[in-house]
Amino acid sequence: MSDSKFPKMLDYEQLKQQFAELDQQDQLTSSAQRPADSNDEIVDFSSEKLQYEQDRALSFDQNKTEYQRPLLTGSRLRSYAFAVLTRKEYSKVDLIEKLSLYAQNREEVLTLVDELAQENYQSDQRVAEMTLRSQMRKGKGPNRIKLALRSKHLDKTLVQEDMREIDWYEQAYQLKVKKYGTDVAKEPKLKAKQIRFLQYRGFEMDAIMKAISRKIDDD
């Protein structure tokens, strides 16, 4: 190639202007040559191009080979289990389901989780106690706590003794004061609103009625 035939520097703005002028001339020429009463159809190439691109993309998706991660087993599965438990506490059931997503053999997962539980790396008791404390910090009553335990596939008996020692009436009262103040509601609508609020939080009706009826003098 000679430098004269292929210059190193091109004036792109000038070229763009030239091509724009040529396009305008072609449009004027084609419109001038077409008769005024011409009924020729105007072909919409943009829609044909769009359909072509869609067909091409579909063909590519059908033909491409998806990469599949190799399933874990042995020491690699064990290392992954430790990594999972380092980040978060899991109930036994949830840990089995988590590891089974990446394991080659579910039976190996069951054996591994049993071993981890025996060595106290995994503990349903620990997860249940953490769940109880977390729910109480959020102002949840016993019914909502039981639901939270069930969602983690934990038996409520794991924290049954702890829950018996909690003064749920006091918990409901403190939540009511935080939301509505210390005044005892006299209007039926406001009283019903407070009842619904505490019911939604998971408190029993007995604790709710005591909480919304409690006066400052009763302290």
Automatic annotation (TrEMBL):
Q: Which InterPro entries match?
A: RecX_HTH_2nd (IPR053924), RecX_HTH_3rd (IPR053925), Regulatory_RecX (IPR003783), WH-like_DNA-bd_sf (IPR036388)
Q: In this protein, which residues make up the domain named RecX second three-helical?
A: 123-161
User: Keywords assigned by UniProt?
Assistant: Cytoplasm
Annotated ranges, domain RecX third three-helical: 166-212
Q: Per its UniProt record, what Pfam families does this chain match?
A: RecX_HTH2, RecX_HTH3
- Any single Gene Ontology cellular-component annotation: cytoplasm
Q: Which GO terms describe its biological process?
A: regulation of DNA repair
Q: Which purpose does this protein serve, as stated in its record?
A: Modulates RecA activity.
Instruction: Name the family.
Output: Belongs to the RecX family.
Show the HAMAP family listed in the entry.
RecX
The name under which this protein is listed is: Regulatory protein RecX
Q: What's the source species for this entry? A: Acinetobacter gerneri DSM 14967 = CIP 107464 = MTCC 9824
